[in-house]
């Protein structure tokens, strides 16, 4: 059985660790991952931002790497993918204004496919209207958006993640190990062929 095919929707000033780490980890574990950004083509890059927790009241932000896209958003179809990853950072803030991004996100929820979102990725979930009654973690400053969208905000440690059915969320990049472990468990469960009891 082929490995699940994952779509990652990202954009300029996406959080560096929330983009690079899941992209490379999922590839290393044998999954196919297509990273896309509206308005950019395969081979082009998005700028990343590094968010650090240095004792201030909120995170600090620094310029990160150039993250190379390997697919073109306008050419992909959500229906061709088994799962979705939404990194955080600054990108979700403006990507939520793109109707095609919102349509893509809704497809994964309508079809019950695995979705992983971290940090400010919850802004896209809220804008897509897919959080009603769902437990969702996010960067704490996004709690009002989760709750206004009808979601149940998971107030968990920054190193933790939470699963609610097909949805796996976490507050920020320090949760990458837990977030990715839970997401891969959901992916593997979704890809297991159903067997009939004898």
Explain this structure.
The longest helix has 16 residues, at 176-191. 30% of the residues lie in helices and 24% in strands. The protein has 198 residues and is of the alpha/beta class. Helix 3 (99-110) packs across helix 4 (122-128). It has one domain (3-189): Rossmann fold (3-Layer(aba) Sandwich), CATH 3.40.50.880. The protein is globular and about 45 Å long.
- Architecture (CATH level 2) name: 3-Layer(aba) Sandwich
Major beta sheet, strand line-up: 3-1-6-7-11-10
Q: Helix-strand pattern, N to C?
A: EEHEEEEHHEHEHEEEH
Instruction: Note the overall shape.
Output: globular
Nearest-angstrom radius of gyration? 16 Å
Mind describing the biggest β-sheet? Answer: 6 strands, mixed
What is the CATH top level name?
A: Alpha Beta
InterPro entries: C56_PfpI-like, Class_I_gatase-like, DJ-1/PfpI
GO biological process, one term: proteolysis
Family: Belongs to the peptidase C56 family.
Protein name: DJ-1/PfpI family protein
